[in-house]
C-alpha cells in the first residue's frame, strides 16, 4: 500500500512521468499506469484523506472467489510455459489475455495470482529456463552391475544423465567409467540423441569436467573445452555450495534412478550394450510420461519448446582428443607416449600444449599450432620434419647414404666401395 500512496504523491505533488515514477518506486510502468487509472476511476482526489486500508479497498475491490463466464481465469500452465520463450514477459501475456478477454482481470491481479499458482510448483519447476539454453549433466549415484559371461566377474557400470532446462527432456546411458573418454563420449551421444546443441552445458565439479574447482572461475578440462569448441557450446560449471545451480541435474538423476534404474534392479545384464538397450526403452517411456502439475510430458515439451531452439549439429563428427603438456628437448623434439615428434627448432626448451587423437599429434605454442604429425605407436623412435630443423641440420640431413655413394663414384669405383663398406658397417 505504501507504494501506491507514493505513486500518487509523485504524480500529483511532484509531477513525475510514469517512467520516472516506475524508476523511483521500483515497479513496472504498467503497474504505475494501473494504479493511476484505478485512482482516476475511483472518483477520489489528491491529497487523499483515506487510510491505507480504505484506499486499497477503493482501488482494489476483492476479486470474486470463483471466475464467472465473463471473467475466465487465465491458463496458468500455459502462462508458465510461455514465459520460457525468449523475450516473453508477464506484461506481454497479460496484454494478450486482455485482448482475448476484454473483461478479464487487471495486471496486478494477473501477476499476483500467477505467483501464487507458481508457488505451488516444486522448487525446480519454478525456475524459468529459456528454451534451448541449458543442458544439465551429471552421473547417477547408483551403478548397475554387469556380469562377464565368461569369467563371471561383476563390473559396475556408471549412468550418465542429461536434462534440458526448459522441457526437462532427459537422456541417460551407461558407460564403464566417469573418466574423460566416457564423459565426453556421453556428451556426443547425448547431442545426437537431442538432434541439436544447446547454448550452455552445466556440469557439476566432476574431475573430468573441471581441472581445478573454484566458486567463480573454475578451470575447465582442456579436452572438455575441445568438445565445447567443436559443438559451439559454452561450459558453465555449477558453483560450489550453490544447490540451485545443479538442482535440475539432481532432480533428473532422481527421476532416472526412480523410473529406470529401480525398474532394472532385478534384471541381469551381460554386456554394456544390453544394459543400454534396456535403458533406452525405459527412457522413451519416461519422456512420454505425463507431468503431474503441468500439461503434456517431457516429450511434448521438448517438441514444442527446446527442439526448435536447439542449434544444428556440426557437419563433422566429434573426435576425442586428449591434451598434455610437453617441453621441447635440445634436439627440438617433444616426447609423447614414448615417441619423439619434431617441432620448429626455435622452440627448444619451451613448454607446448599437445593435442592427441587416435590418429594425430598436434603441438601448440601460445594457442598457435606449430607442428602436426601422424601419431606413431613405435616407442623410442623419432618423427622428424625437415622444415623444423635448423639450416645446418637440414644440409647435413641431405647427405643420405645414396647421395654419399653417388658422390664417391665420381672419384672412382674403389672410393665408392670404401664408402659403401663404411656405411654398411655403421648400419
TrEMBL record:
<dbReference type="InterPro" id="IPR012337">
    <property type="entry name" value="RNaseH-like_sf"/>
</dbReference>
<comment type="similarity">
    <text>Belongs to the transposase IS21/IS408/IS1162 family.</text>
</comment>
<dbReference type="InterPro" id="IPR054353">
    <property type="entry name" value="IstA-like_C"/>
</dbReference>
<dbReference type="InterPro" id="IPR017895">
    <property type="entry name" value="HTH_IS408/IS1162_type"/>
</dbReference>
<dbReference type="InterPro" id="IPR036397">
    <property type="entry name" value="RNaseH_sf"/>
</dbReference>
<dbReference type="Pfam" id="PF22483">
    <property type="entry name" value="Mu-transpos_C_2"/>
</dbReference>
<dbReference type="InterPro" id="IPR001584">
    <property type="entry name" value="Integrase_cat-core"/>
</dbReference>
<dbReference type="GO" id="GO:0015074">
    <property type="term" value="P:DNA integration"/>
</dbReference>
<feature type="compositionally biased region" description="Basic and acidic residues">
    <location>
        <begin position="384"/>
        <end position="398"/>
    </location>
</feature>
<feature type="region of interest" description="Disordered">
    <location>
        <begin position="375"/>
        <end position="399"/>
    </location>
</feature>
<feature type="domain" description="HTH IS408-type">
    <location>
        <begin position="4"/>
        <end position="83"/>
    </location>
</feature>
<protein>
    <submittedName>
        <fullName>IS21 family transposase</fullName>
    </submittedName>
</protein>
<dbReference type="Pfam" id="PF00665">
    <property type="entry name" value="rve"/>
</dbReference>
<feature type="domain" description="Integrase catalytic">
    <location>
        <begin position="126"/>
        <end position="309"/>
    </location>
</feature>
<dbReference type="GO" id="GO:0003676">
    <property type="term" value="F:nucleic acid binding"/>
</dbReference>
Amino acid at each position: 500500500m505504501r507504494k501506491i500512496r507514493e505513486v500518487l504523491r509523485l504524480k500529483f505533488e511532484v509531477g513525475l512521468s510514469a517512467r520516472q515514477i516506475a524508476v523511483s518506486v521500483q515497479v513496472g510502468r504498467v503497474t504505475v499506469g494501473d494504479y493511476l487509472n484505478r485512482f482516476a476511476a475511483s472518483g477520489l482526489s489528491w491529497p487523499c484523506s483515506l487510510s491505507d486500508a480504505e484506499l486499497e479497498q477503493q482501488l482494489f475491490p476483492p476479486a470474486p472467489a470463483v471466475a464467472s463466464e465473463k471473467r475466465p481465469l487465465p491458463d496458468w500452465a500455459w502462462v508458465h510455459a510461455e514465459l520460457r520463450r525468449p523475450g516473453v514477459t508477464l506484461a506481454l501475456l497479460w496484454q494478450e489475455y486482455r485482448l482475448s478477454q476484454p473483461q478479464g482481470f487487471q495486471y496486478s491481479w494477473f501477476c499476483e495470482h500467477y505467483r501464487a499458482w507458481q508457488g505451488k510448483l516444486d522448487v525446480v519447476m519454478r525456475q524459468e529456463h529459456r528454451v534451448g539454453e541449458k543442458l544439465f549433466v551429471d552421473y547417477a549415484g547408483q551403478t548397475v552391475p554387469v556380469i562377464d559371461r565368461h569369467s563371471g566377474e561383476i563390473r559396475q557400470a556408471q549412468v550418465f544423465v542429461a536434462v534440458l532446462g526448459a522441457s526437462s527432456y532427459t537422456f541417460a546411458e551407461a558407460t564403464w567409467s566417469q573418466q574423460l573418454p566416457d564423459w565426453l563420449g556421453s556428451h556426443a551421444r547425448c547431442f545426437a540423441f537431442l538432434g541439436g546443441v544447446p547454448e550452455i552445458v552445466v556440469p557439476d565439479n566432476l574431475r573430468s569436467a573441471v581441472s581445478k574447482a573454484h566458486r567463480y572461475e573454475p578451470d575447465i578440462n582442456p579436452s572438455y573445452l575441445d568438445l565445447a569448441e567443436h559443438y559451439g557450446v559454452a561450459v558453465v560449471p555449477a558453483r560450489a555450495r550453490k544447490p540451485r545451480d545443479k538442482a535440475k541435474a539432481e532432480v533428473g538423476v532422481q527421476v532416472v534412478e526412480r523410473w529406470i534404474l529401480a525398474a532394472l534392479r532385478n534384471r541381469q545384464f551381460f554386456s554394456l550394450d544390453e544394459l543400454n538397450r534396456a535403458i533406452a526403452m525405459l527412457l522413451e517411456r519416461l519422456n512420454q510420461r505425463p507431468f503431474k502439475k503441468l500439461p503434456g510430458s517431457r516429450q511434448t515439451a521438448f517438441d514444442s519448446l527446446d527442439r526448435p531452439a536447439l542449434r544444428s549439429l556440426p557437419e563433422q563428427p566429434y573426435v576425442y582428443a586428449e591434451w598434455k603438456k610437453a617441453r621441447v628437448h635440445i634436439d627440438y623434439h617433444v616426447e609423447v607416449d614414448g615417441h619423439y615428434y619434431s617441432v620448429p627448432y626455435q622452440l627448444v626448451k619451451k613448454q607446448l600444449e599437445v593435442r592427441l587423437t587416435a590418429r594425430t599429434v598436434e603441438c601448440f605454442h601460445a594457442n598457435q599450432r606449430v607442428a602436426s604429425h601422424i601419431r606413431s605407436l613405435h616407442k623410442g623412435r623419432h618423427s622428424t620434419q625437415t622444415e623444423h630443423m635448423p639450416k645446418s641440420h637440414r644440409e647435413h640431413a641431405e647427405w643420405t647414404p645414396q647421395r654419399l655413394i653417388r658422390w664417391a663414384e665420381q672419384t672412382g669405383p674403389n672410393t665408392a666401395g670404401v664408402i659403401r663398406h663404411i656405411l654398411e658397417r655403421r648400419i
